[in-house]
Every structure is written in C-alpha cells, then in structure tokens.
Write a sequence for this structure.
C-alpha cells in the first residue's frame, strides 16, 4: 500500500473509519524525528525505543479525540515530552561510579542524574524556546519565522543556550 | 529504524486485536443474553395471558369498527390490569437492551469490518513486511 497524495487529515479520517493500516504511514513519516527528539533528551539512550513506541501508542489511543485539522508532528512532540517527564519521574535515581573508573585521589562518589527540564529552566525563556525548536527538528529559517526574529538572532540565541548548558554540565 | 517501526506497529495491532476481539465478544454475549431473556420473559407473559384468558378481550375485533373504537380504552385497561407489571418491565428492558446492542453493532459494522480486515492483512503479511 502506498501513501500517494493522501493528506494527514485524510489518513486520520480513514483510521477512524477502521482502516487502521493507514497508521503505518504516520509511523514511517515521523518515527525518526521523534526518536531523535527523545534521544537528545535522554541520558540512557537504550530506553529511547521504548519511549518512542509509547509515544505512538498513546497517539493511536487518542486518535478519536484528535483534532484532524491539527498537524500530527507537534502533537507527537507533546506526547513525547510527557513520556519523557514520566520517564524522569520514575528514573530520577543515581548512577554509581564503576570501580575501574576510580583513580588515585578519586572519591567514591555517587553522582545524581538531573531532570533535563530542571536544567533547562536555568536557560532564559527566549533561548530555551529557540533550542526546543531546534530539537524538534525545525530549521533556523522556520524558527526565525515562528519566533518572528532575524535568522542571525536565532543563531545567536541557540549558540548562547548551548554555551550555557555546556557550562552547567561541566560543573 | 525499520525494526522500531515494526515494533510500534506490532504493539498497535496487538492492542487493537485485543480491543476488537473483546468488543465483538462482549456485544455477542450481551445480545445473546438479552435476546434470550426477552424471549423467555415473552413466553412467560404469553402463558400468563393464556391462563388468565386475557386474549378473549380481543374477540371484540370481530365486531363493527365503531364498537371497536368505542371499546378500545376498555380493552387497553383490561390488558394493562391483567399484565404482571414487573415481568413486563423486565421484558421491555431486555428487549430494549437487545435492540440497542444490535443497532450499535449495525451502525459500527463498517468500521469493525475494516478493522478486522486490516488486522488479518497485517497478520498474513509476507516475509518482506509489506502491509
């Protein structure tokens, strides 16, 4: 079965009418973006696949309520964000240092893994928004249109946000 | 990536298979039980009417139309008085339930048919994974 020129709206409509094999088009279209988004916000990359699966399943369950006039991808991002929040609530634990990593004068410490949303709160709102849009897969041109800012301003915002995050991680 | 997409679809189809099977089974069970109950209650009601000779009031329909029209209120009153109310209420409830399930099934028949066809197609897909 080929997607052809069927719009997302038509795909949603057909899935609601019982032609659930059309869901495969949405999966093929958006999996890579959602996977990249989740991987960029996870410390343990191995769990990314599970979260992506949960995201799409949650979307499938919510299809009856979904407004078919909306775009699918932003809605998937919202679900992915919620999945990540739940994941961090469940996994807000600690990671031990392995013995072979210890050297002379090295303390046997346990480092806490932070919730990335907590770290992002330290980034100024306008920089955070620009960075979030980059992670969501938008180009700089699209971000400048969305935020109504010059493209060079967008580049600067993103660079500063990244520098700030790097300095926080290195502490 | 292909593997992850397949996993997503596998889970989706597994969930939908379970949901559709339960829904279909539930509707069939509910319809069977309520239709059977309605049938049994109707049988009992008819027996009660036969024992009470209630059907004799309908002999008036052999008379002229003016007589029938004049007596229609009396006929209805007599039938109502001689009907066991609780039994009648249960019969109506069972009959309505059976009709409601049947109507719901008929209204959603197209959707369910498509779903079942999609599930069967997915399960029987070739080794290359074409849907």
């Amino acid at each position: 079965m080929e997607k052809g020129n069927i719009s997302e709206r038509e795909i949603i409509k057909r899935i609601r009418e019982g032609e659930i094999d059309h869901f495969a088009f949405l999966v093929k279209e958006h999996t890579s973006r959602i996977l990249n988004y989740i991987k960029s916000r996870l410390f343990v990359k191995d769990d990314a696949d599970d979260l992506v699966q949960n995201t799409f399943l949650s979307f499938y369950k919510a299809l009856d309520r979904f407004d078919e006039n909306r775009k699918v991808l932003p809605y998937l991002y919202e679900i992915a964000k919620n999945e990540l929040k739940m994941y961090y609530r469940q996994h807000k634990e600690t990671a031990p240092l392995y013995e072979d990593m210890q050297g002379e004068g090295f303390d046997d410490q346990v480092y806490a893994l932070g919730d990335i949303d907590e770290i992002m709160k330290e980034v100024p709102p306008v920089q955070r928004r620009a960075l979030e849009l980059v992670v969501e897969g938008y180009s700089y041109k699209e971000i400048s249109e969305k935020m109504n800012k010059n493209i060079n301003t967008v580049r600067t915002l993103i660079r500063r946000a990244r520098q700030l995050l790097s300095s926080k991680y290195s502490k | 990536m292909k593997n992850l997409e397949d996993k997503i679809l596998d889970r989706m189809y597994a969930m939908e298979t379970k949901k559709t099977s339960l829904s279909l089974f539930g509707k069939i069970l509910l319809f069977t039980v309520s239709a059977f109950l309605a049938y049994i209650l109707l049988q009992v009601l008819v027996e009660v009417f036969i024992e009470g000779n209630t059907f004799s009031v309908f002999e008036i329909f052999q008379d002229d139309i003016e007589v029938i029209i004049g007596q229609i209120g009396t006929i209805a009153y007599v039938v109502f008085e001689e009907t066991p109310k609780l039994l009648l209420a249960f019969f109506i409830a069972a009959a309505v339930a059976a009709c409601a399930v049947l109507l719901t099934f008929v209204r959603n028949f197209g959707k369910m048919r498509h779903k079942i066809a999609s599930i069967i197609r997915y399960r029987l897909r070739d080794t290359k994974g074409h849907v």
Remarks:
- Confidence is low (pLDDT under 50) at residues 95-114 of chain A.
- Chain A is about 60% helix and 5% strand.
- Residues 85 and 117 of chain A are 8 Å apart (CA to CA).
- Residues 151-170 of chain A form the longest helix (20 residues).
